[in-house]
Design a protein that fits this description.
The protein is built from 13 helices and 13 strands. The structure holds adenosine-5'-diphosphate (ADP) and magnesium ion.
């Protein structure tokens, strides 16, 4: 492509809210064979809502949520924000936290009113030697099969309940993913969330391939693996966790409504949250390079 056609292409893309950081990305985007999509905030709206509260025997909902709120109010994770908003909406007060620890990819550990509180994955509670019954695990499974993210709660080493949140897919995700697939591009969803929830969400979005339970530092390694198999890979994400994978990919695309860290690491910023911008960007590259008319 001539410098003039690249400049014209970049200008046209910008009108569609697709910001290429350099002309070389407009030239290379047409080579993409695989698109890896982050789940939360990329395929989904990224606005989870508290939907379910299940209490262990001897626990009331408000006692449980008081502990959960105390633990989650210091976390900046979208799940934590959803849980805290849901607790506030029920008119409950938040207890001050005495100690707080974020355990990336697993959950949180905090203390409040002299009690130790854990909220997070099965792995988190297992690592902390908290016993969880088979029935509780089945309740988790059922919530996850509906595409919800379910989190276990323990207080002073005893299982105390489950909280679950739902994050619906964007209205345009299914159509946008169908477009990529029709262009001959393989679409994979990647997430730290569990396999069941991930599969349910992927199915709603028309995605057949899922990489679930990937720890925050593991996303870049998964992108690298795909590249090592000979593929040209684009990564699309919005979170701080996605930044290393965005930098590793042949083309990193950040969602403009996401974090600054993701946008700094990416080669292209998609100002519209709509995933149709991915296909638009690749089509514009194909056109600029003269591969389609
Ligand atoms: P994602 O890629 O979906 O943003 P993360 O890697 O951040 O996922 O988290 C993976 C899992 O760890 C979550 O699905 C949740 O079960 C658990 N988790 C993470 N942060 C929290 C939190 N603040 N409270 C409870 N659970 C959490
Ligand atoms: Mg995300």
């Amino acid at each position: 492509a001539t410098p003039t056609s690249v400049m014209a292409g970049s200008g046209r893309a910008a009108e569609y809210g697709i910001l290429f950081k350099g002309g070389e990305h407009l030239e290379s985007a047409q080579q993409i064979q695989t698109v890896v999509l982050d789940k939360t905030g990329t395929v989904t709206q990224g606005k989870p809502v508290l939907t379910d509260v299940i209490t262990a025997p001897n626990w009331t909902e408000s006692d449980l949520l008081e502990r959960v709120g105390a633990a989650e109010q210091s976390s900046e994770h979208p799940l934590a924000e959803a849980i805290v908003a849901g607790i506030r909406a029920k008119g409950l007060e938040l207890t001050p936290t005495e100690k707080f620890e974020n355990i990336p990819g697993y959950g949180v550990r905090a203390s409040a009113k002299g009690q130790e509180i854990l909220v997070g994955t099965r792995r988190l509670l297992a690592d902390e030697q908290v016993n969880v019954s088979q029935e509780t695990i089945q309740q988790m499974n059922r919530l996850e099969e509906q595409g919800r993210t379910a989190m276990l709660v323990a207080v002073d080493g005893q299982w105390a309940g489950i909280v679950a949140v739902a994050d619906t897919i964007k209205d345009t995700s299914r159509e946008a993913i169908g477009r990529l697939q029709a262009m001959g591009i393989d679409v994979i969803m990647i997430t730290g969330d569990n396999e069941r929830t991930a599969r349910a969400v992927a199915e709603q979005a028309g995605i057949g391939k899922v990489l679930a339970e990937v720890l925050p530092e593991g996303k870049a390694a998964e992108v690298k693996k795909l590249q090592e198999s000979g593929l040209k890979v684009a990564m699309v994400g919005d979170g701080i966790n996605d930044a290393p994978a965005l930098a590793t990919a042949d083309i990193g695309m950040a969602i403009g409504t996401g974090t600054d860290v993701a946008m700094e690491a990416a080669d292209i910023t998609l100002m519209r949250g709509d995933l149709n911008s991915i296909a638009d960007a690749i089509e514009m590259s194909r056109r600029t390079m003269g591969n389609i008319k």
